[in-house]
Amino acid sequence: MTTLKFNEWQDVGGTPVMRINAGVLEVWDGSAWGLPTPGAAVISSTTGAPDITPGEVIDGVTYDIYEFKGSGSITVGTAGFAELLVIGGGGGGAAGASDCVASADGGGAIPTKSILSF
């Protein structure tokens, strides 16, 4: 069995695009090798009328915040980094018969950092 190891990748024209150098991924910017530095993911559209707060600075980091209070979606137009915090609301409680009370499960949260690319 033969094991192939690639330490440089090229586009179809033969131009280098990325490599592994001493265990570190580097990308070619057209003039020099460097670390990959994708920017923030760019949102191209939304549905569901979220409240949008652009340019919110939290601990020195600038965020665009999309807050949905109902169903909706976000479409990513340009790949990049995004931090996501997804919180699902819990169901409401209800009055039961004979002085009993019914309740529903609480919400949950899923914090994550992701690279969004489509």
Keywords:
disordered C terminus; four-stranded antiparallel beta sheet; 2 domains; two-stranded antiparallel ribbon; elongated; 118 residues; 12 strands; mainly beta
Write a brief structural summary.
The chain is mainly β and 118 residues long. It has strands spanning 8-10, 16-21, 24-28, 33-34, 42-47, 51-58, 61-67, 73-78, 80-88, 94-95, 101-102, 108-116. It has two domains: 1-37, no CATH class; 42-116, no CATH class.
Secondary-structure blueprint:
Layout: E1 8-10, E2 16-21, E3 24-28, E4 33-34, E5 42-47, E6 51-58, E7 61-67, E8 73-78, E9 80-88, E10 94-95, E11 101-102, E12 108-116
Antiparallel strand pairs: 1-2, 2-3, 3-4, 5-8, 6-7, 9-12, 10-11
Structure write-up:
The protein is mainly beta and 118 residues long. The chain has two domains: 1-37, no CATH class; 42-116, no CATH class. Helix content is 0%, strand content 55%. It contains no helices and twelve strands. It has strands at 8-10, 16-21, 24-28, 33-34, 42-47, 51-58, 61-67, 73-78, 80-88, 94-95, 101-102, 108-116. The strands form five sheets. The protein has a four-stranded antiparallel sheet, with no helix packed on it. Strands 5-8 form a two-stranded antiparallel ribbon. Strands 6-7 form a two-stranded antiparallel ribbon. A hairpin with a 4-residue loop joins strand 3 (24-28) and strand 4 (33-34). It is elongated. The two termini are 35 Å apart. 1% of the residues are buried. Mean pLDDT is 73; it is low at 114-118.
